Structure prediction request, 554 residues.
Amino acid sequence: MRLPEVHAVVIGAGAAGPIVAKELAFAGFKTLLLERGKWNTAADCRKDDLRNQRTSVLGHPFGPDDEGNPRVIVDRSGRLRVVEPSGPGYNNNAACVGGGTLSYGAMAWRFHPNDFMMRTVYASKVPAAFVNSTLEDWPIRYEDLEPYYEQAEWEIGVSGDDSTNPFKGERKRPLPMPPLPPTKEHEILWKGALKAGLHPFHIPMLRNSVPYAGRPACMRCRWCVGFACEVDAKCGTQNTVLPRALSTGNLELRTECHVQEVLVDERGKATGIRYFDRDGRLWEQPARIIVVSASAIESARLLLNSRSRLFPNGLGNRFDWVGRNLQGHTYTGAYGLFPEETYDDLGPGAGIAICDFNHGNPGLAGGAMLANEFIRLPIQAVGIRPPGVPRWGKAHKDFYRSNYRRIVAVQGPTQEIPTFDMRVQLDPVIRDKFGIPVARLSGLKHPHTLEIGEAMSRKAEQWLKASGAHTTWLKGGGQGISGGQHQAGTCRMGNDPKTSVVDPNCRIHDMDNVYVVDGSVHVTNGGFNPVLTIMAIAFRAGRYIASTHKEVAA
Prediction:
């Protein structure tokens, strides 16, 4: 069934889509925002310590549901297995209004200026990182995103204090909210960092530390990562830009809608989309502008499924780059066991970080931000034990009874080295409940990614020892597929259509009116949680789309 035409359709209401939709709505565009999940609240997710024990940290209860949404995973030996959203290796992103911003830990990092210039900085210094990799410079620089980082920090809302971080890029305006008061663990690590000659600071957080924008401050509960905030103090797109966009009257949100394909006419111009509603009915939605913001895996899947006579291999895929360069983050670090209790039950737990090792590590192309970790609920903590502690039985229980409150974790998201063969494809056999080919994920991490991760684990261990840990052990990273909640890279940004999918303004090279705006456009994913960069790119792209296509809304 064909619906009336709108000015713009935005596909995906996660970290980026509602920002683009807000920019367009405020510019007068009649905009439709489609989301495959529901508009959940904290009431839809009770604070259950057992809830996340077998799912991704962003919380499988926020979607996608298991029934009819599988993926196919190719393991290291080449064997294929079908995985449901709650299964290991699915590489889940929450599928709901707000996406991961409803349930994330909310770290709000700006990428380092060098993150946008990896080839320029490291090609001569670390040639091993460029062997069988697609490590490249971005076509934009930190300075291009700086005003949009600022806009995200103030419009969405960020608390913290990075004034003691000498390694950050230039900041023209301070963060709008102060940091939360430090926890006991934070104070212990701060002293240890100074003792080791490091530069600790308060983590920037998309979280209210004081009342802000009509919402209250964080209540410091232990149920944070993977849970929606019951007092609405976490700042996501669902409680900031989206309500403002809806208030214009120019935006309509439709939930539980699964987009099948982007439609293209005989001249190669996108004319709209087809999607299934919650009842399985197929609709055709004409639109003048299409914005794909479905996350790196699902955005690539949608483009690959959008085949036509002019684009037989999918939109933007003339040179076989759609779905390539999939990156997430390899989290490595260390654990420390302290003689005194370090746990005081004040959420969110994470609060202190260092950026001494993001760049400038001899022999390494990049590094990672290192920080203490969010509160680990007991069911999540039982796998954290030093070598020699039994995995079950009385000795196992006795260890945790004595030491649960004495363990500190420090870890960080390793700067991953992208490769052409870490990728998203369409599976030729398996389809979802609507008959749409599902994503097939395959590839191995670049060897240098593992080297960086191991080095970051050693740095984390040194920080813990300087802070007083009497026993330490390392957390390593695996070689397999990397996606997860930090997935990026599959529709990379670039100037050359032969080696990228979108241009520096997120427009697909082959198309005049189709854009991809989410983590998939990242050329590299930095040594930081990427959400603030996703938001900054969305503000920048949204403004560009509105100004470039202003005749559409005239």
In short: The CA atoms of residues 328 and 482 lie 5 Å apart. The domain at 1-59+91-158+206-210+225-329+488-554 is CATH 3.50.50.60 (FAD/NAD(P)-binding domain). The longest strand covers residues 282-292.
